[in-house]
């Protein structure tokens, strides 16, 4: 691999040797802080005055603040394995980490600040990272992974749409931007999860890898792309609800068939696996809830949405961070036992935020607080357990 020599590597602060280190640490800590502030605001204990308004801040920061950090941490770490070239580290990694942090601070304390200042700083993060990702991919002709570049640019477009909504006082545009970000991230989870789960399951359970059924994978992903396109261009309003419901139902069925083939029942003794499988199962669950909503069932957009955000994203991110942090820091893929509690807590938060609110809406505030508490505790556990992993050199002495 064309990487820095060991002497140069040892001069680097361990936190700046690979993108997963600062992005996972800061992203996880930020998500716990942001969720706690959101919960305290909902309960009336504090009066938060972020940029734009509290609802904008919550939806924007959990998707385009927290999730974006983890996605970038994963991609800018994986690109070294894909290409054999040294991934961003040192000064370039410090720059994007500070750029990301600046966006979070401006949005949190940005009440009264210029929209153009906040938007310029925040909107620059993903394109800069896309450039850093594209350089080694293009240099080595990695065609298979180049699609991540337009995905990051699509997320940037969703982010820009949210700011346009603020600038024009069009709440519908702000909501469209955040909803589209959910579809882009869901599609990304479906693609990446479909790549790694069969391999992870085979390796972790010492069983034969489940080979892909090409038509099934393509059909499932195509249905998610269609859902994104219909929503991104606001075309769904021109179609009858039954047609949209049918599309969501088909997508849910195809995605569930993929999940079923990966044999979750083999993973019950491996926390890094069952947590990933359960996270992936939240995708067809969320799609099924949207199908039911469009079919006329009394399910709010918020409940269906949080099956994908609190459920799929929250759980998959925590599980992937726990795995990647160990693997890329040269450690055995055996997390501390308390991480199983963290995985269960974030799943409990998702259940509270969706199923319990739907079944017992009169206790919505209690379920919201339960969801906030589960999320905050889960991600604080990750930060506490993995802080020494992310801030110390690899035990094998290798770069990274």
UniProtKB/TrEMBL annotation:
TM spans (from-to): 23-42, 62-80, 92-109, 115-134, 146-166, 181-200, 212-233, 239-260, 272-291, 303-326, 338-361, 367-389
UniProt keyword list: Membrane, Transmembrane, Transmembrane helix
Keyword Membrane: yes
Pfam family, one: NnrS
Annotated protein name in UniProt: NnrS family protein
Organism: Rheinheimera lutimaris
């Amino acid at each position: 691999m064309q990487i820095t020599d060991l002497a140069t590597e040892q001069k680097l602060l361990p936190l700046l040797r690979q993108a997963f280190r600062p992005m996972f640490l800061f992203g996880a800590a930020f998500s716990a802080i942001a969720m706690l502030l959101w919960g305290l605001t909902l309960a009336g204990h504090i009066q938060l005055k972020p940029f734009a308004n509290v609802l904008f801040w919550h939806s924007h920061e959990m998707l385009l603040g927290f999730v974006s950090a983890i996605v970038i941490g994963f991609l800018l770490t994986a690109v070294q394995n894909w290409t054999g070239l040294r991934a961003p580290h040192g000064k370039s990694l410090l720059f994007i980490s500070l750029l990301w942090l600046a966006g979070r601070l401006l949005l949190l304390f940005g009440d009264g600040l210029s929209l153009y200042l906040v938007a310029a700083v925040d909107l620059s993060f993903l394109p800069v990272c896309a450039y850093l990702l594209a350089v080694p991919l293009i240099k080595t002709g990695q065609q298979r992974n180049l699609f991540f570049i337009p995905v990051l640019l699509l997320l940037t477009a969703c982010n820009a749409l949210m700011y346009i909504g603020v600038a024009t006082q069009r709440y519908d545009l702000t909501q469209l931007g955040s909803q589209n970000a959910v579809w882009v991230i869901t599609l990304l989870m479906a693609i990446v999860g479909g790549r790694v789960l069969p391999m992870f399951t085979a390796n972790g359970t010492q069983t034969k890898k489940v080979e892909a059924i090409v038509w099934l994978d393509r059909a499932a992903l195509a249905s998610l792309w269609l859902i994104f396109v219909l929503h991104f261009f606001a075309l769904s309003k021109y179609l009858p609800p039954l047609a949209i419901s049918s599309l969501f139902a088909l997508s849910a069925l195809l995605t569930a068939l993929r999940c079923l083939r990966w044999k979750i029942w083999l993973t019950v003794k491996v926390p890094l696996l069952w947590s990933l499988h359960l996270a992936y199962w939240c995708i067809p669950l969320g799609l099924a809830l949207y199908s039911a909503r469009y079919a006329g069932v009394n399910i709010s957009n918020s409940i269906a949405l949080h099956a994908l955000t609190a459920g799929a994203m929250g759980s998959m991110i925590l599980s992937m961070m726990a795995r990647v942090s160990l693997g890329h820091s040269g450690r055995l893929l055996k997390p501390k036992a308390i991480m199983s509690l963290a995985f269960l807590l974030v799943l409990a938060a998702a259940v509270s935020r969706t199923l319990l609110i739907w079944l017992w809406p009169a206790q919505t505030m209690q379920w919201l607080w339960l969801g906030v508490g589960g999320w905050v505790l889960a991600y604080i556990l990750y930060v506490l357990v993995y802080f020494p992993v992310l801030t110390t050199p690899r035990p094998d002495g290798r770069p990274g």
